[in-house]
Specification:
Elements (H helix, E strand, L loop, with lengths): L28 E6 L5 H14 L4 E5 L4 H9 L4 H7 L3 E5 H9 L5 H12 L5 E5 L11 H17 L3 E7 L7 H6 L2 E10 L2 E11 L8 E7 L2 E4 L7
Parallel strand pairs: 1-5, 1-6, 2-3, 2-4, 4-5
Antiparallel strand pairs: 6-7, 7-8, 8-9
Helix pairs in contact: 5-6
Bound molecules: adenosine-5'-diphosphate and magnesium ion.
Magnesium ion (MG) binds next to helix 1.
Length: 234
Amino acid sequence: MKAGDLERVSTGVPGLDEIIEGGLIPGKTYLIVGPPGSGKTTFGFHFLLQGARRGETVAYASLVVDPNEVVKDMLRFDPSVQVYVGSKKLRLFDLGPILWRESSHVPTWKSVLFRLREIAEEGLSRLVIDPLTAIEFPMGNPAEKRAELARFIRGLEDLGVTSYLIAELTDMSRYTEEHYLVSGVIMLHYFLRNGRMIRGVQILKMRRTKHDTAVFPLEFTHRGLLVKGESLPI
Ligand SMILES: Nc1ncnc2c1ncn2[C@@H]1O[C@H](COP(=O)(O)OP(=O)(O)O)[C@@H](O)[C@H]1O
Ligand SMILES: [Mg+2]
């Protein structure tokens, strides 16, 4: 171990930890961005299942889709997901509909953080929020949005959990604040090459970590996602 090395949290995606000095920094918040179908939700489940396999309690907070439906998708590549749900090592939270029923509005970051605090009291090490884009932040004024988002991220980090915030990448300029505030930004690419769609992963930002900024191939196999070591020539 080199001087200054920290304990790292594995992403659970084969091939990825190797390009970020062993993994993520515990207790920090990471943004996972990419277009629909790029693999964001699956990427989040790799991270959660890695923790559950180590005996940790982890949580998936779904803001739009029924998390039980998401689990059915994940069964395709890891049947143990159902086992961890059954043993409550993997906790599922349907935050959107619960909060919508209460307020009849899109949930605000404060109401989501309130629910997450209750969840974290039960002892959580990893959390995935899918998607961040379904939570309401004041959008009118960029300075105000950044301040509120900073409070949300600080609130998450105070819970002591390592978190993924998943965001749909539809308009790059919408996510400027998020990019500044989180400890790392992992971008999933999904693009057309020779008549078919190709997936890639790119580390845009990773605090305290020496990393390559190239796009690496991200492949879907019957075991889920896999990062190949050779960067893609784009
Ligand atoms: N076994 C598989 N092999 C290849 N592609 C798959 C497989 N399972 C799912 N996919 C693809 O992955 C997509 C879903 O990935 P997901 O993690 O939900 O992406 P996102 O959350 O970014 O929309 C599916 O729409 C499908 O295109
Ligand atoms: Mg998704």
